[in-house]
Structure formats: structure tokens, C-alpha cells
Amino acid sequence: MYRYDEFDHGFVAARVDQFRDQVARRLTGELTEDQFKPLRLMNGVYLQLHAYMLRIAIPYGTLSSKQLRMLGHIARTYDRGYGHFTTRQNLQFNWPALKDIPAVLDDLAKVEMHALQTSGNCIRNVTTDHFAGAAADEITDPRPYAEILRQWSSIHPEFSFLPRKFKIAVTGAPKDRAAIQVHDIGLELKRGPDGGIGFAVYVGGGQGRTPMIAHKVRDYLAEEDLLAYVEAIMRVYNLHGRRDNKYKARIKILVHETGAEEITRQIEAEFVEVRKTELLRLPDSEIERITAYFAPPVLAEKPARSSAFEAAKADSAAFADFATYNVTPHKAAGYGVVTISLKPIGGIPGDATDVQMEAIADLADAYSQGEIRVSHEQNLVLPHVALDDMPALYAKLAEHGLATGNAGLVTDIIACPGLDYCALANARSIPLAQDLSNRFGSPERQKEIGELKIKISGCINACGHHHVGHIGLLGVDRRGEEVYQITLGGSGDETASVGTLVGPGFKTEEVVDAVETVVDTYLKLREGPDEPFLAAVRRLGQQPFKEALYGTA
Amino acid sequence: MTTETTDAELTIWRDGRFQADEWTRAAEDEAVADGPAILPLERFLAERDALVSRNAPLGVSVEPNEAIEELAPHLDRVALVTLNFPKYSDGRSSSSARLLRERYGYVGEIRAVGDVLIDQMPLMRRCGFDSFAVTNPVTRKQLAEGQWPDVPFYYQPTGSTQQAEVPAGTRPWARKPS
Fold first, then answer.
1. Hey, is the C-beta of B111 within 8 angstroms of any chain A C-beta?
2. Would you kindly state where each structural domain of chain B is located, as residue ranges?
3. Which residue among A92, A181, A218, A393 has its CA within the 20 to 30 Å range from the CA of A542?
4. B144–A contact, CB cutoff 8 A
5. A416-459, pLDDT tens digit by residue?
6. A157/B103 touch (CB, cutoff 8 Å), yes or no
7. Integer distance in angstroms from the first to the last C-alpha of chain A?
8. How many helices (H) and strands (E) in chain B?
9. Which of these, A179, A175, A162, A172, lies nearest to A198 by C-alpha position?
10. Could you tell me if B159 lies within 8 Å of chain A, comparing CB atoms?
11. Nearest CB to A156 within list B103, B156, B170
12. Domains in chain A, ordered, with CATH?
């Protein structure tokens, strides 16, 4: 993992001191809420429906056990004993008192964390594959590049007042678990013609009220030019992105209105100029120095097959399900990557209590080299677990209600905080996720349905990623009533697509039945258990689902 | 007879103190006054040949939707460029300032005008601004008290010469104020 040096510590400490002073001035009334707002937003402090919310950056979703323990401590000391992991691989605390926030930031700084650039029209937390550095299918670990981007984008003097927020995602594997094509910039690590490392560069993807899949502007960019190229993109966007309407201000709109070809020309022309200065060229030595922080852990050699693991699968159906759905192949033989589901049946997606956070930190120390990941699907991941240790790990997870074997299944639902917390929401998301989870929660039912991603947003801003849900649910307000629209066929992976609205929305009391109708229609029409939901929707189109939901008209 | 200068007339923050503004802005269709005068970019470009004979410094005001590239070939005749921030949250002029300094090698004064607030000023300085027309009373008070809310650890080499920065540590992009 990356470790701060003196410079990084100095940076965070100076920023916390600055914000402490601003909070003090707000509390004495010297600053009005209007004057304070831009300052608090730059430090991750939002004002929600009922209270301040603090959003903490978890760079590229990587946490050490020490950091997770500190988050548990903060949850218990300054919040109501839980935190909420987000679709941006971050963590939100929903109930901190403003006066306590500088102390929280001090605690975070002790474990090399902060809340910078988790809001505002700047470059946000760079996200990546939650299996980075562990997955068997990876070309190279994307996190060193994400770390370089994180540093370079921190309080950037030119790019802190962009037309709108800006999100960069990096994947190191051809199977895209970071949803790069629905980000402002998506970077896919690949080998170049010369065998070197570089990136395919995508620009202009996004969700929100105008979902768009990104355009590829570069098939191959050498790694040394990463910052120069990103700076070129940022400058074109900063100068030319729309500022007249916040809903048309993301780079996707600029790309759409300018045309992919012309925007590519502008970016490339700017890149030629930026590159000339050589200021941003990444020397190999520095890439190597940062990469060394992410060196793969030294794992004891193991046979590919673990008899303890196989015996436990034969012994317990629940463990076998967990092994099937929550354990992913690791680079190293005899190891697996474990997804800890934060989606217990009927629970709140992404929430973890202080006790759970501390328990997971302990388990990471015992079984996963002290490392934890946060996935954009609102789960946690132990990246380096020996297959031999799986049964013991599973038993301990179960003690804390963390052994639900549903990763990637119908109850592994993404949901935004919705009307229960958020000032922007039109509808509740969490109770719907809970109702769906209860409806489909039996192990047999989930297994029968297979891979199916349901994603719920409580408003058009799409924080719950409904556009890329295999089944997407969007809460809207229809004359004062909460109504949910259903989209089908979205996907955030390397075959990215935006889901299509299937028809008129459903009321709260109807929507769970409607989703069940969609699922039953799939089960009836699929070619067999090997045809997943998404493939079936792509083959069948919307018609059969429309007919099932609305009758033949 | 000397004229008293009131605090309110010292509108320009430069070199760590408030100073009087010595520049006049030429309105759309009136003759350019004697002494240092600022013209809008469009008028400057249209009249630049006729302006050569003037013996006083010329300044150019550029709006964020105007392309700074158009001014680039004429910078040797320009002593001041003002870049407007219609809102503090509009960062376009920061890009223009960096281009002026770093791409076009402009060494004259770059002044931020418009919604200039203290929290953006250290960032603006790193982009190449060296003077600031400050009207916001809170910002004026804070500056007068000596506040300068910089975080003096920079992760970007901006290449600007206005804010002297030295490399820090092994990262080629890390800088500290010198």
C-alpha cells in the first residue's frame, strides 16, 4: 500500500489546520453558511436533510486494517455506530456534529486519510478495480497510476473550479470491474506494440440525467505521458465545458455537443503542447518507486487445490454458495479474493457497524495481509486469502453477520442513500432495496436466477447507478407520490450499455411485484441456466418484458 | 495640492499590500485616455496598429469565453492582462493565466478581476496571477489581517514564475514555495 512521506503528511496536516480555523469561524458566526459552504464542500462536508454528512476519501478503494479500525473508532465516537460505503469506493458518516469534524479529520490524518475532493467541482477520488493487485486476469496493478493521479489532482490550482465534478477510473484488467466507460475519463491499462505499459483512454462517459458511454480518444498512450494527457483533457474541459447549466456541465455533454472527432483533435493538439514542456513526463524511476508500494504480498506457496476448502464445500451448502459467489480466483495458486457482502438479506446496502469494521480489520490481519478493499458495488473485499483459511474466515464472518453468499446475485443490490438521508432525492432507495432483498432472499431462488445486478437511484442524479443496472430502478416524484421507473439491459462492464426504460413507473407498493414479473419472465424465456439475465435481455429485447408488465396493448 | 487616498481606493492587492489602481478602462466607443489604459480584447485587436503610437502602457481585458491565443502574438506590447472571474467558481481564467505565463512566456502583470475571494487567491497566484482587484469586504479584511490560506505543499509543477517554487523530494511533480 502507498505510505505517506513527510511531504504528504505535511500537506494533509496543513489542510486540516486550515479547515479547523474555518469551522471555528463558522461556529462563532464570523462566517455565514453561504460563505462557509464552498469551504466545507472542499473538505467533504455536506449538509443533508437532517444533519451534516462527512464523506471520507478511500483512494482507489484500498484500506489497511489500521485505517479500517480507525473508521470503526470514528463511527463509534463521532457518529451513531455505523458508516456507509458508497458507489465511489468512499465512506460516508451521516451524523457527525460540525464541531467534531476537525477532530475526525485529525484522526483520519493519523492513518493517512482525509476527506479532500470528495465533493465540489474538482477531480474526485480516482477509482479502480476492487480486485486490483490480486485478480488472476490482470495485466498490471492499476493502483500506482491511480495514486499518481490522486497526488497530481490534489488541490490542483487550475482544475479546482471545473464546470462540474470530474471522475476518473482505471482498470488493469480487460474484464472491467471499475466501470471505466461511464466515467469522465476511463483508463484501461494495456500492453503497447513495443511491449511497454500504457493506456487506452476513454472520455465523456457518465450517468446522471443524461447517461452516456465514453468515447475512446486514444487507443494507446505510453505510461510516461499519463499526466500530460490528462492535463490536456482537463484544460480542454475547463475552458470549453458548459457553465450555463449545471445539468449540461459534465464533460460528456461537451464531447456530445462538440463531436468525438473534434474533441479528440482538441485534446491531441493540447497534449502536443503540454508534452513539450516535459514538466509532467513521468520518469520510469518514479513510476517504479510508487509501484513498489503496491508490490504483491509475499504469500506462502500453496497447492492449487486445498483439501480443507473442498471438504468445507462438501460439508455445508451455505459455505459452498459463499465459495461459488464470494470467492474469485487469485493470481497466486491456492489463494482466493473474498468479497464480504454488505448486503445481508433485508439489510441496508453498504452499511457497516463499528464492530463489523473492527472485526473485518482483525480478519484482514489474520487472513489477508492486513489489506481490505471497498468495491463500487458497496461491498468489502479481502484480497489475499489462502483457500485453506476460507472455512475459518467464513465462520468468523458469520459471527458478525458478514457471511452472506450473494455477491453478484439478485440481492447484491446497489442503492443510493435516497430520501432517507439525501436532500436531492425524490424517493426512498434503501427500503426498496430491503423489500427486494427479502422477496428474493432465499438461497435457492437466488441461485436459480444467477447473476443479476439491481441498482437503485432515488433521483435522476443516478448515484445508485441505475443506468448500468441489469435491472435499474429510478425513483421519481409523480405529483407528490414516489414512483419507480424500471430500466432493463444496462451494464457497467467492458460491454457497457445504458439500460432502456421499459414503460411507465410503478408505485412503491407495486414495484417489488413488477421486478419479480421481470425476473419470472427471464426465467421462463432464457435458453437455460447458462444464459444470464443481461444476455437474455440483449437477445430478447424489451418486448416480452413489456408484455409481462403492462399486458399486450 | 495632494489628494488623500482612502482605503477604499486602494483596490489592488499586489506584492502583499493594497495599492491604488493606476489603470483606466476605456469604454466601448470613447477615445483612449492618456496614461495606462485597459482595452477589451476585441477593441485592442481591432485598433492595435493605431495604438502603436501611444506613449503610455496598454492593458487588455480578457473575458473567460475569449481565446487567450488571440492575444498571444501581441504580448510584447501589453503591460497588463486582466482576466475576469464572473463567479469565484468559474475556473476558466486560471487556464488562461497558465497559458499566458507558461506557453506564451508573458512576463507582464496578470490581474484577476471579478469575484475574487481569498480562498482562491493562493491557487490563482500559482497559475500566474500577480495582482488582484479585490472588492469583497470579507476578503479585504482577511488580507489586511495578513491571512493567506495556502497549503504550502504542491503536487503540481505549474511552471509559473510568479510563485517561486522549488522541487520537493523525489517526486518530479512535487513543489514547495521557495
1. no
2. 7-151
3. A181
4. no
5. 999 988 888 999 999 999 999 999 999 999 999 999 999 999 99
6. no
7. 58
8. 4, 10
9. A172
10. yes
11. B156
12. 6-110 (3.90.480.20), 142-293 (3.30.413.10), 307-399 (3.90.480.20), 414-550 (3.30.413.10)
Kindly give the parts of chain A with pLDDT less than 50: none
B52: buried, middle or exposed (CB in 10 Å: 19+, 13-18, 0-12)? Answer: exposed
As for the ipTM of the complex, it is 0.95
**Cβ of residue B101 closer than 8 Å to a chain A Cβ:** no
Distance CA B22, CA B28 (A): 19
B141 touches chain A (CB under 8 A): no
Q: Are the C-beta atoms of residues A371 and A288 closer than 8 Å to each other? A: no
Residue of A2, A7, A43, A158 to mutate when probing chain B, most B C-beta within 10 A: A158
Encode pLDDT of A198-233 as tens digits: 999 999 999 988 999 999 999 999 999 999 999 999
Task: Look up residue A506 and give its three cell numbers.
Answer: 410503478
* AA identity, residue B56: A
Minimal Cα–Cα distance from B78 to chain A, Å? 23
The C-alpha cell at A181 is: 466507460
Give B7-151's CATH code, choosing from 2.60.40.790, 3.30.2350.10, 3.40.50.150, 3.20.20.70: 3.20.20.70
- Beta carbons of B169 and A5 less than 8 Å apart: yes
Sign, CA dihedral A297-A298-A301-A302, equals negative
